[in-house]
Protein: Iron-binding zinc finger CDGSH type domain-containing protein
Organism: Nitrosomonas europaea
Amino acid sequence: MGESGTKSRFPIRVQLEANKQYYWCRCGLSQSQPFCDGAHRGTGMNPVVFVVRETSPVWLCVCKETKNIPFCDCFRTD
């Protein structure tokens, strides 16, 4: 997935709306974690675009080590 700038080891709980497009920060440089704010420009990385089927709270990964992008799966290796 490449080097990320994020330092947080903990996921963020957010309320997502059904059928709305979201942009998950892959690079870790966004000041709007866990969402992309365009800080990746020039890094060669792009955000992950995703949609959820139901309006609900979810835990989104911020450590960038998840195997279930963009959702937290507690996979951290530290």
Summary: DSSP finds no helices and four strands in the chain. The first strand starts at residue 12 and ends at 16. The two ends are 17 Å apart (CA to CA). The mean pLDDT is 90.
